[in-house]
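Self-study notes.
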Amino acid sequence: MIARIFLPFAIGYFLSFLLRVVNAVIAPDLVAELSLSAADLGLLTSAFFIAFALTQLPLGLLLDRYGPRKVESGFLLLTAAGALLFSWAESFPLLILGRALIGFGVSACMMAAFKAYVSWVPKERLALVNGCHLAAGGLGAIAGTAPVEFLADLMGWRGVFVVLAVMSLCISALIYIVIPRRDEIPASESVSKQVKDYGLVFKSSFFWRITPFTVMSQAAFFSLQALWSGPWLRDVAGFDRDIVAWGLTLIAIAVFVGFLVGGIVTDWLRRHKISPITIGFYGMLLCMVPQALLLLEINSFLMVSIVWMAFGLLGTGGYLIYPGFSQFFPSHLAGRVNTALNSLVFVVAFVGQWAVGAVIELWPAQASGGYAIEGYQAGIIMLLVAQLIGVGWYYLFPLMMKKISSA
């Protein structure tokens, strides 16, 4: 029965992650065909994140009220529409709209699964099952690199998005038909009561201690892994397009391993009373090391691969905060607490991805036409400073709360 629940949702998350990272491969085609600037490219790709973010709070209500089967299968129809529009678009505004519709559509692919697993999986095994689910996203990240490069060479980037639209329709039907109709009786609580219950999340000091660092870390992870890793490999490391595709594949493999190992390690460490949030915090902290190393001008494929794979492996630590919250908050709030965090993550990811492009554009282009190395360095420094602020908040927050309570 667990496999019947897990596989359809995992396939949906595979598609979600593929669509999240696909622009890192097709970016040169988009820039060449539509004459996009670095800021334009950042805005286009990050439209996915802002649409994703805007969906999260109402998504939490929908999941807790109507159940994950109906919600995700319905949302994936929007994904199909967005992918088709993206494949047909001839103007920048239509590309933005298509990318935003894709973001709206796949916004349920992680949260719906997490909500379903809370109903079907023993609480102490949630981290393991969630880790396996996230690993399916890692496979999607792998599929979004060299395989997409191959398809783009074969049928063009527009053809790739037609294929993705068909996949979205098929997965929507799979989820609707295969997932059991459990927990789909409409919630007895009124909508106003459900909205008020978000206050239990946003008033929680437990939520606010770790959330700022999680948000900053995941924004950096999404900004670099989902878009700027490809241009960095081209402009800073100096690799040609085929080598860039293989570099992105190695990063995606590291992401897959990070998700899978994170779930296994977390499941093991729970026996020693170590929470997923503790593990996630130190994973995010260590992830700042490879980001700092990206400030160096490395052009050895081996060294570049090691640094970027370390980034991909450790960057998945932020996802362990979600099962940590699911274990801390009541199960009827599972949809809302995770979407509350996700909404903040994706708003900042939108700003971060766009801001990195805007910073890169402050420097004149290289003679080869690529972006300046100094621009990438400045963008990464900006992301690191934001994460350091989050780390400081994590350590100072208990002291501030103690001071407030004793006042």
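Second protein, same conventions, sequence then structure:
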Amino acid sequence: MANGTTRRPARRSRQWLWLVLSFAALAAVVLLLYETEDTADVQRTAAPPPAPAVSVLAVAPGPARAVVSAYAELRPRWDAELRSAVSGRILAVHDGALAGARAAKGTPLFSIEKTRYETAVAAAELTLEQARLSLLQARNKVTLARRQFARDGASPPNDLALHLPQLRIAERNVAAAGAQLQTAQRELADCDVAAPFSGFVTRRLASLGQTVNTGDPLLQLSGDRRFEITAELSQADWKLLEQPVTGQTADLYHRGGQLLGQARIRQGGGFLDPKTRQLRIFLDVTDPPQAVLAGDFLRIAFRGRKLSRTLTLPEGTLSRAGHIWLVDSSGLLQRITPKVLFRHQGNITIAAPEGSGPWQVARTPLASFLPGQRVSPKPVEG
């Protein structure tokens, strides 16, 4: 029992010893960390941080020729669904009538059975000959009557005595018979359907052996020689154009930017589109280059009038918020909201701000720019 009693105080003494040593080690670590933070390398300087470098363009006010751009679809002037003008069975479908074929003006497309119309022409010719015979007989009667009255030395009491009413009826019968013959001949000619203008067959709607009636669709033909464009401009852009616009030319650009040719302004202005409230300009394109296809969405550049006191800048100088940043002579940023007059070929032309200039314009404005911020301007070429 004495042995067990002496072991317990010794064990408790060792536990307290380890506990004290642990607290001592923890205190030493905390003290070491505190001393390290307290002796951190801090350097103080009175000089402000250097001003950030900003690339600037030096620009001065000057005149510029306005260029107004609009986007519009190129459409063929003639785009028609050809329909049958006669009734009958289709005897032939020519190669020019196949979908995708390019048909020149006058190219045969369909041949429709024409026996009935040949018979109608023959009947109309017979009727015309009979009417001409009746006219000759009426003229002969008038001549004989005039001679008879001349021999008798008397005056005819009225037109009926000279057979003049019969002569007028005979003349009208000849005219009517001639018109009937022309109608029959035209219907006979309509049995051979030909392309009324040069173009591409976009759809074929009738087949060989099919019986068609007057007005039935045969094919869709889209012209390839003459095109037209309807462009819309805002009233502000319209004021930039030289007036009158009729007869002027405009440049056509592909979506990729290459110049395709020119279009002639047929008419413009005069009324507002009831939906868009913009003015319309109608342009003609005749014999365009092969790169131009119907349905293309083109950019039309109209040459405008000459403007004074403008600045022409790269589009990148205009921030997303619509601001231009200037750097004054003291190296401080100034923010202005310009009036953009027009855009052309990656540049914007704005009305020059007040003053004589030149001005230093930030080439690439940053979202971190603040009015009055000091920067270090670095001139670059536009």
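Instructor comment on the second fold: The chain has four helices and 21 strands.
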